[in-house]
Amino acid sequence: MSTEAATQHPGLSVRHRLAERGVDSQLLLLLPAVVFVIGLFVYPFLYGLGLSFQPAKGGGAFADYQRFFSDSFQRDTIWKTLRLSVPAALFNVLASVPIAYRMRGKFRGKRLITTLLVIPITLGTVLTAEGLLNFLGPAGWFNRTLMSIGLVDHPVRLINNYWGVFFSLVITGFPFAFLLILSYISGIDPSLERAAATLGADWRARFQRITLPLLAPGLATTFCLTFVLAFSVFPSAILVGDPTGATRVISIAAYQAAYEQYDYPFASAIAMVMGAVELLVIAVVLLWRSRFYVGSTGGKG
Amino acid sequence: MTEKTEFEQLRLDGVGRRFGGQDALQDLDLTIRAGEFIALLGPSGCGKSTALNCLAGLLPLTAGSIWQDSKRIDTLPPERRGFGMVFQNYALFPHMTVRSNIAFGLQMRRLPKADVTRRTEEAIRLVQLEEHAGKLPGQLSGGQQQRVAIARAVVLEPSLVLMDEPLSNLDAKLRLEMRTEIRRLHQSLGLTTVYVTHDQEEALSMADRLVVLRKGRVQQIGTPEELHTKPTNWHVADFMGFRNLLTVKVQEAGGRQVVVEGPGIRLAATAMAQVSSGERVVAGVRPEDLVVQPAAAANGGGNVIRAMVEVVEYQGRELAVEARTPEGHRLHLRTPERVTAGEAISVSVAPERLLVFPLGDEAPPAGVPVLGDGASSSVGAPVLSRAGGEAP
Questions:
Q1: A194 in contact with B at a CB cutoff of 8 Å?
Q2: Rounded to whole angstroms, how far apart are CA atoms B209 and A270?
Q3: Which of A194, A201, A213 sits opposite B91 (nearest CB)?
Q4: Residues A61-79: tens digit of each pLDDT
Q5: Residue A130 is part of which domain span?
Q6: Mutate which of B73, B85, B93 to test chain A, going by most A C-beta atoms within 10 A?
Q7: Strand order in the sheet with B217-222
Q8: Lower Cβ count inside 10 Å, N or C end of chain A?
Q9: Which residue of B has its CA nearest to A195?
C-alpha cells in the first residue's frame, strides 16, 4: 500500500515519511532558539576555546594552561572556589529539604511563606552584599547585639573573609534551591507516604525509605544548579570577601587576566579550567544520581 | 511495631469529619464484626472515602470515636493501628520492586529476615505474581499493580483491610475478575474488610453488609438483599437501580397497599413508609420490573402505563428501552420483546414491585417531571389541569 502511494505521489510520501520522524514546518519554530544558542553560546565558547590555545606570550598551545597550573597563586583559586561553592551548595540543598518537606502539603499561608523565602532571589548580589556589610560588619547590629548581651568582647569577624561570601551565597542560592526542591517534593504522590504509614512506618521511616529515595535525583539536580551558580561567584567575593586572599576565586583570576593584564588567551584558558572543574563535579554528582530510581513519582507536580 | 491485633468487633461511634465548616461525614454509627465484608457505598462526595481515611487514621476525626473491642483507637496514628489499606491509585512505591513493596510492611514490624522472606514469597504466590516479583511497579499492568497493592496490604495479616475503590481504574473485564479474586481472598484468609465503592453492583455482589451514604450521612445499613428489596428511602432506591422514579400523589392510603396517581397514570403500589392520602411521594421501579404487555392484552389488566418507545439499546437477550408516556414521563425498561423505536407499548408493573417513598425535605429526583411543575420540566410535559391545585 505504501509503495503504491509512493509511486503515485512521490512528493507526498516523502513529506509523510519526514513528518513521521518529526521533520515538518513546525521545526522552523526552533530557529530563533538555535540562532540564539549558536550566536550567544556556541560561537563565544568555541572562540574562547580557540583563544586559550594561542598564548599571547607564545610557548605552544598549552602554555597558558601550564602557566595556570604551575603558579600556585592561580592554581589555588580552584580549591578556594570549591571550598566556597561546594559547602554553600550543600548547605542550600540540605537546609531546603526539611523546610520543603514540611511545606509539601496545602495549608493556609503557604503562598506567603514561599514568597518570603523567595524574596532574596530578587535582591541581587550587590544589595545582598550591602545588607551583609551593614548587618554583620564590625559595627553592625549582629555584633552590637552579641556584645551588648555579653556573648563576645570583640566584634566577630564575619565579613571581608570566607564567611561573608559564604553567607552571600546562601542568601542568594537558598531560595533557588528551596523552590526547586519544593516542586520536586510536591511531585511525589502523597498517597505513597500514607500507604507507608498504614504499613507501620513512622515518619522517620517514611522519610528515609520513601521520600528521600524518590527525592534524591531532584536533590542531585538542585545541587548541580546551585553549585554552578556558586562556583561562578564574583561580585560578593569582592564586596564581602577577601578578594586578594581567602576568597580570590577563579572568576577573579580570569577577570584580572582579562581586564587588568589584558591577556585574553590566559583569561580564556582560566575560563576553560573553570568550566572543566564544574563539569567534573557535575559528572560525579550525576554518577551518584544514576544509582537511584529516576522514573515517575506519581504526583501531579 | 503493632502486634497482630485480632478483635471481636470494631465500633464506630458517632464518627464525624468536618472540612472547613462543611460536614463530609456525620454521625456514622457502625459495628463491624470480625470476618465481615462491609461495603461503603455512595455517589462521589458522599463521605465514603472520608470514612475510610478516618478508620485508617489518615484523617483525624472531628467528632465521635472508634473502638476496637474496649480499646479506643481513633487517637492512634495510622502506623499503630495495624490496618492494611489498598489505595485507589494503588500507591505502590515506584522505586521498589514488587518484592520490596510487599516486604515493606513486614520490615517495618522488625520481623526476622527469614520470616520476612517467607511471608513475602507466600504473598507473591497468593496473588500469582511469581514471574514479576523482581519488576518495578511501573513495568506492570494495572491489574498486576492492583494485585501487588492487595498483597502488600494482606501480607501483614491485618485485623482489618481497607479498600478505597480498588477496582475503579481497571477495565470492565479485569474488574469482574478482580472482584472474584478479592472475594476469594476474603473467604480464604478470613480478613475483615471495609470496601469503598460507588458501584452498587460491585457492593451488592461482594459485601456481607452495605452502608449507603449520602451527603455524609448514613442512609441505610443492611445486607445486599435488604438493600436490594427494601430500600429505606428513594435516594437509596435510586442508588440500588430503581431507575424509574416518579413524583406522584397518594390517592388511596391503606397500610402497605396504596394507590398513587400522576399525570395520566394511576397505579397500585407498595408503601415503604407511612404515607397519607394526598401526600406527594416518590414511586420507584426497576427497569426489569416493568413488563411490556403483548399488544392484544393492552386493554386488559390493571397497573398499566402507556408509552412510546424512543430509544432501544441491544443488550443480548434483552433490550434496554427508553420510552415516554404521553404526559412526558420517561421510563427505562428491560424487555426480551423485540420492540422498535416509535412503537406504542403498554407496560405493566406488579404492585409489590412499585415502591412508594415519602418525598422528604429534599427536592424530587432530578429529571423527573413533578406534578404541577410539568411545564418547567425538561421533558416539556403538558401542564395538566388535574394538577392545578398544586400549581403555584
A1: yes
A2: 77
A3: A194
A4: 899 999 999 999 999 999 9
A5: 76-289
A6: B93
A7: B84-86, B161-164, B193-197, B37-41, B209-214, B217-222
A8: N
A9: B91
pLDDT tens for A172-223 read 899 999 999 999 999 999 999 999 999 999 999 999 999 999 999 999 999 9
**Is B138's Cβ below 8 Å from some Cβ in A?**
yes
Answer whether residue A11 is part of any domain: no
What is the CATH classification number for the domain harbouring A283?
1.10.3720.10
Contacts of B82 in chain A (CB under 8 A): 200
- Return the C-alpha cell found at A106: 496545602
Closest chain B residue by Cα to residue A194 = B58
The domains found in chain B, sorted by start residue, are 9-229 (3.40.50.300), 234-370 (2.40.50.100)
- B41 DSSP β-pair partners: B197, B212
* ipTM exceeds 0.90: no
